[in-house]
Backbone:
C-alpha cells in the first residue's frame, strides 16, 4: 500500500517490532507529556515493548500496519474485531501513533485508511487529546458518551470512545 508521494504503508512483520516499539515509546512521550509524569514517560522500555509487539504482530486477530519514509518507521496502527464485550462496531482501531516530526506528512491518514478504511469502526482515546480528536472528527468519528478509566502503568487516564 502506498499513498501518493507520502509515506509508504504496509503490513508489519516481526522484523518491524523494534522500530514499532521505538515509535510507540517516542509518540507516547510526545502525545502524553501533558497527561503523564515525565518520570513514567522517561522510564518506558523500548526493548520490553518490542517483545510485546512481536506477540501482537503474530496474533492473526490483529492487523498491524507501519508507515515509513525511506527505511525509517514513522508511525503504526493496529486494528481488530474489537476488544470490548459490548463493542458498538465490528472493527476497533486499537492504536495509531505517528512521530511528531512526521505530523502533516499524511502518515496518520494513510495508516487510518489502511487499518479501518471508511468502514464503521470505534476507538478509545485519551480524553484530553485535542489534536487526535480533531483528526478523528475529520474522519467521521464522534464521541458516543462512553468513557472509562485506563491505567498506563500505575497512572490513571480518562478515555472516551469515538464511533463512526
Residues:
Amino acid at each position: 500500500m502506498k499513498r501518493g508521494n507520502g509515506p509508504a504503508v504496509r503490513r508489519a512483520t516481526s522484523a518491524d517490532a523494534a522500530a514499532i516499539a521505538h515509535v510507540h515509546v517516542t509518540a507516547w512521550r510526545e502525545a502524553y507529556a501533558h497527561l503523564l509524569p515525565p518520570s513514567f514517560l522517561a522510564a518506558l522500555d523500548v526493548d520490553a515493548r518490542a517483545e510485546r509487539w512481536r506477540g501482537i504482530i503474530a496474533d492473526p486477530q490483529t492487523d498491524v500496519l507501519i508507515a515509513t519514509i525511506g527505511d525509517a518507521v514513522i508511525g503504526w496502527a493496529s486494528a481488530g474485531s474489537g476488544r470490548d464485550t459490548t463493542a458498538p462496531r465490528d472493527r476497533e482501531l486499537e492504536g495509531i501513533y505517528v512521530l511528531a516530526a512526521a505530523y502533516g506528512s499524511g502518515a496518520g491518514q494513510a495508516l487510518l485508511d489502511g487499518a479501518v478504511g471508511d468502514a464503521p469502526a470505534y476507538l478509545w482515546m485519551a480524553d484530553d487529546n485535542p489534536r487526535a480528536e480533531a483528526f478523528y472528527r475529520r474522519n467521521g468519528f464522534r464521541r458516543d458518551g462512553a468513557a472509562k478509566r485506563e491505567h498506563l502503568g500505575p497512572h490513571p487516564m480518562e478515555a472516551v470512545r469515538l464511533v463512526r
In short: The two ends are 24 Å apart (CA to CA). Strands lie at 8-11, 62-69, 72-80, 92-98, 122-126, 142-152, 155-163.
